[in-house]
Structure formats: structure tokens, C-alpha cells
Amino acid sequence: MADKTVILKIKRQLTPNGKSYWEEFSVPYRPNMNVISALMDIAADPVTRDGKATTPITYDSNCLEEVCGSCAMLINGKARMACSALIDQLEQPIRLEPFSKFPVVRDLATDRSVIFENLKAVKAWVPIDGTYDLGAGPRMTAEDQEAAYPLSRCISCCCCMEACPQFNEDTGFVGAATISQVRLFNTHPTGKALQRERLAALMGDGGIQECGYAQNCVEVCPKDIPLTKSISEVGGQVMKQALGDMLRR
Amino acid sequence: MAAPKIIVVGGGLAGLAAVIKIAEMGGECDLFSIVPVKRSHSVCAQGGINAAKNLKGEGDSTWKHFDDTVYGGDFLGNQPPIKDMCEAAPGIIDLLDRMGVPFNRTPEGLLDFRRFGGTLYNRTAFAGATTGQQLLYALDEQVRRYESEGKVKKYEHWEFLSAVLDGQKVCRGICAMDLRSMEVRTFPADAIIIATGGIGAIFGKSTNSVVCTGSAQSALYQQGCYYANGEFIQVHPTSIPGEDKLRLMSESARGEGGRVWVPKTPGDNRDPKSIPQSERWYFLEEWYPKYGNLVPRDVATRAIFKVVYEHNLGIDGKPMVYLDLTHIDRKILDRKLEGILEIYEKFVGDDPRDTPMKIFPGMHYTMGGMWIDYKQATNIPGIFAAGECEYQYHGANRLGANSLVSCIYGGGIAGPNAVIYARGLQASSDGNGHFAAEQKKQEENNALLMKNEGTENPVKLWRELGELMTKDCTVIRYNKNLQQTDGKLVEMLERYRKINLSDRTLWANTTVVFARQLYNMLQLARVIAQGARMRDESRGAHYKPDFPERDDKNWMKTTKAYFAPDADEPKFEFEPVDASLIPPRPRKY
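Predict the joint structure of the above. Result:
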């Protein structure tokens, strides 16, 4: 029997404005391979399945433990992290594509800096006075900590945005990850101080109202963050604030 | 007077801590990082962060934390800065708490603390199983705040190539490359802070992230910075071997009764569960009847190495042994170990409740790094360093949960000292020609790599480097092998000249970037190998069977390597350790 191989079909694009095209690769199979290790094999020996020399695949990666958020891509059509995508659990040929809703940098690497701009816009931080010694932070019940921790595990991978039907150029939707961070900081005893500004940033075009409740976000989130719950909770806060503002006018 | 301009290279905990301090002091700060800073390697730390807050009524104190750290480091660390760090640690926890880190809580709503290796006290604050991620995010958020106020400018997807030094060898800025456009550019600064983390890639596969190549440290070493204690490499006994990297398997698996074994017959490739008890070798239990599978980390690591490399009994002939939990009740496993078992399931695809885990010691951390003084300043004026990339706080062996505190503390010392240095800095007397010269040098370097028509494949050369260093330069060290290792490294540097890039395009070309890193890895590997060769004793993570004892008389010294450009190799000096506070005593747990 011939040695087992892994077949990958990879969508390539050499420059941000270049034309995309597909290349097929075959790499030797080993147990416990993930998509990243197949990409590493291609980098060591960049030859297509039909023997044509090509260039290594450009992709984002860093921790390879599903905690840095770098290696997000479409794998067999699904938005997910390449490090935790095990070859044994994927149908072959394995199709790798860059995210479709973010500018392609090259091959599978995309520019997802929009998430960091969004986090800036909603002031996703606790406004401390300074780093000098001011004693302990606010007390927090174990219950509150347990509610905050899952939200704080968001790795900014942008899978939820890629999968969302409303996240596109027309709506300018901010996306589930950012809304969930608003929920996180609005519950923090000190972070709460910026609640008004955060909610104001989520009003209007591209804000929370764009959500169409497709629930794709929660389905693709690699960290199982309760994104739809965050959206409904923050949605309620936004509504309340908008109403209050209207009555005060 | 214009605000001092500081460049910070690296956006992990140490770099971000430095940035926050600089911004707070009114400095102007440019932050360079290969990846968006929120994706830095600090996110990988799981266990926690040490600080003697003494919230459990145990009588813990910062002095005890200091003593544990010095003792754990086998008396190779300079004691005054370690003492300062331990005294600052409780305040650092308070600060992180104020920044919103979701630390686990006690029923009263106070911070919870747990036990970690190398101490008898509950001294480790933690946020679930992702403490590093939570800490990094807290600092990242504060930096984003300063960024939105225009006090910090980020250069993400940029890689540091070299420092710009003037004619007096004073640092005047950096030379860096845009990893997308491949543009090489220089950036002036009054001082720079290097916070570029670990060097795992020199060992091929490690628990480190992809960016942890040590390339920046090596480039600076080649420009004249001292590199200290390079031979001290921490290897964690139980990591999960992967095709792409090693991932950590927590010591708690053995704490709950996990047993380590290999098949007695070399090459036995039967399903582990079908191998009868009589044909399994529980070597830790046999060799260490008193402690069994719970011998200290370094002992367990050495034993596994011996079984794999001397007895050739690795599973399937590969460097792996079994860590078996299958004899333990599923319900107990789920209750006590669920979090870590999920990691194994997710990345290996097997359920460790049904199948023995395959584990092997993995390169995890470098205690050594850039030489710095007590102000985090290197020997080149204007260059500071903080975090794993420097050598100051862990001696010959790092205690668990001390890395996060040393990163934040070191960054917090480096930032203000860089600002103070910058305020007193005189303008360069010999003009700005060195900027153009450095840029030209680095551009030529790229051009040379791009047009080289050789036969050597950089990825394959790197894999060879990793195998060589892992075999001879980690756990068990013999002078003969180390001598040969250095010879092979020289050969590899020779072969590097014949490198052939598979990608010569001029946009987001990862191949040329990697080739550059590889050269720096090879140069730094020689520092590690030669340092290990010279140190004829056993201390902390450095173990030589031919010299099994610690030798304080001759070797209670910091190894300082410097690059001799004409000879193209490292030279060494040795500096006495400052043990002015705690007299050395034998390390016996």
C-alpha cells in the first residue's frame, strides 16, 4: 500500500489586489497532524500535487494552542482556527481559504485589524487612575468572576464576524466579539464608569441594531463564548440608554 | 524640551508593562511587534502569577518568596534585584486586579491563591487556566487606551532587525522590516527596550510560540551586547508532542495518580492497552520507589531522556513515553482534571480517560538572556531589556508562576529607566550617517538571500538544528557531545551560505524572514552549546553526569558571552554572582 497522504486544496493570492487561484498539495500523513503541520510541510517542500514548484503558503500563526487568535481561516468552508483543526477529523481534500470578509494580505493571511479598532471605539478597558500603588482592586464575588471569565477568554480571532451574515461592508456591523467585550467591561465595578460612552458607540449604523439573530457567531466561536447572550444583554442596555436619552430631550 | 522618544520591541507582558510606564511618564513611545500585540506568547502561560500576599493566614512573606526563588534558581541569580521583584509582586497583583483581570476569588470576594512548585505556600494568583492570557489582555487594554490618546504608536507586523549604533557605540534607534511590504526602515529613538521573549525555535519544537526565535537577542549579541547564562534552558517533563509544536501537560496529572511507562520491548507498536502489565516498564516507580511518578521536574525529565535515548525505548522508536490515567475512575478525572484533559483531547484527538497520553519533556523557557544591570540596561548605552529575553531573575532554574511576575516587574523597571536615560542623553556628535548605513547593510542582507542560488533548504536546516540542540543541549549534557554540537553548528553556518529560498517575491514573503531568523538562531545556538560545554558542574537545569555536583567555588558565576566579529564566534567572561543576602546552601527538595 502506498504511504498515506493528506490532500489539501489551498486558495492562493499573492498580493492584496492579485487574482486568486487554487493549488493542490499532497503531504505525507502522520498521526495527530493538524492543518498547521501540513502547512509547515509545504513550507519545507513547496511543490504542488502535480509536481510544480511553488512558494510556501503565507498564513498567520503564533501560539498554536488556540489562545492567541492568529491562525483563523476557512477550513472546508468553516471559520475556525487552523491549530486546533486536526487532519483526522477533516474530510479530504481539505479546502483552505482566507476569510472572505477581511482584506487578504497574502494567501491565507488576512488583515483583521478592524477588531482592534472596534475595541478602541468602545473603550474596552478599565479606566484606572495610574499604575502607582493604590492598593487592592474592588472586591468581587466568585459568582461575578465566574460570569466575567468566559467573556474575557475572547481571542479576537474574528471567526464570529466572518460567519455573521450581517457583518459586511453595507452594514459596517461591529460584530459579536466587540459587543461581548462591552458586556464584560460594563459589568466590571470600575469599568462601568465608561458604560454610557460604550453604549453610545454601539448606537446607530453599524451598531448593535444590525444584528439579525442568525446565531452563527456562537456556533463558530472556538472558545464557546456566550455571544448571543452578550448581544441580547448589551442590546437591552443600549435600548434603555436610548430611551432615557430621548425622554431627557 | 521634546518628550523622550523610546522604542519598545515586543508586545508581550514585559514590553506592554514598559510602554504603560513610559506613557505615564510623558514619554513618546513606538511599539514594534511581529504579531498584533494581543497575540503575543505571554497568552500561553496557564498556571498563575506569584506574589506573597499572605491571604491564607500561612505567614508567607516577600522574603520567603525571595528565598524560594533564589534557592529554586540554585544560587545563580543576583540576589538584590530578585529581592526587589519579590517585594514588588504584591503591588503588581493589586495593579492587575485594578485593571480588571478576572482573578479567581475566595468566598469573601478576595483574590484566591494556590500552591505551585518550589514553595510551601499558597502564593499563586490565577485566572482560570489562562492567567497569562488574562494578564496580557489587561495590559493590552491599557496600551490601547494610550494609543487612542496618541501617546503610543504601534508598528504591528514589523520585525526588529538591528539596533542603529553611532560611532561611539551608543544606540540611536532601530532598523526594522515591514513583514508585508518587506520595506526596511530605520527609526530614531533616544533609547530602546528589547522585550522579545524566548528562544524556543532554536530547539525546533518547544512549548514556545512561533515568534519565539531569539532572533532579536541574537542580532544584538552580534552587535556587541553581552548574552548571559545562555546554557540554562528549562525543560518541562510532561509536554504533549505535536507535529507542529509541543504543548504543556500539567504536573497535576501525575499528582492525581498518573503513571509514566514505556513498553519493555523496543519498537513494540501494539495498542498500549493491549500490552500486559508484565511487559510495561514503570521506570520512575522502579528507579525512585519513594517518590515514584512525583519526583521533581528535573529528575523526571532526566529519567525520561535516559529511557528514550540510552535505552531506546521511546514509543514506536520515537521520543515519547506514556502518561497513563486510564486506571483512574472517569468521574474522578472529570472532577479534578477536566480542563487539562480537554486540551489533550482537542489537540491530540484521543480521550486520555480511555487512552494513555503520549508525552515527552519539552523545551519550555530560557533562564539565560541578554545581560542587564539592575536598571535593566545592557552594556550598550541606550539599549534596555526586559522579560524572558534577559537573564536577571531566575538563576539556574525558574520556579513556576515566577515568569509572569518577572516580565511585568522587569518592564516596569526598564520603562522609567529608559526615560531617565533619554532625558540625560546628548545628541550624537557624528551626524546621522549611521542610519543610512545600517539600513543599507540590512537591505543588502535581504538582497543577498533573495538572489542566492544554493542547495540548502532553510526549513530543513532549521529542523536539523532543532534536533541537534534538543538531543545534546537540553537535559543531559556531555562535554564530548557539546564539543561536536558546536562543530556541527559551525558546519551549519557554512551550509547557510548556500541557502536557497523557495520564495523570492517581494510581498509578505515569510521565507526570507525565516531565513534571517535562522541565521540568528544558529549564532545564538553556539552561545548555548559553548556555555554548556564550559560549565563543568551541575546546577539547576544544567546537568552533566560527569560533573554531578554544584561547584560554588569555581562556578557560582554568571556566564557572559560576547561576539567576536573577526573570529565570527562567541568569547566568554565570567562574573561573580551577587549572593550578598542569602548564603548559598545545598538544594535538596
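The radius of gyration of chain B is 24 Å.
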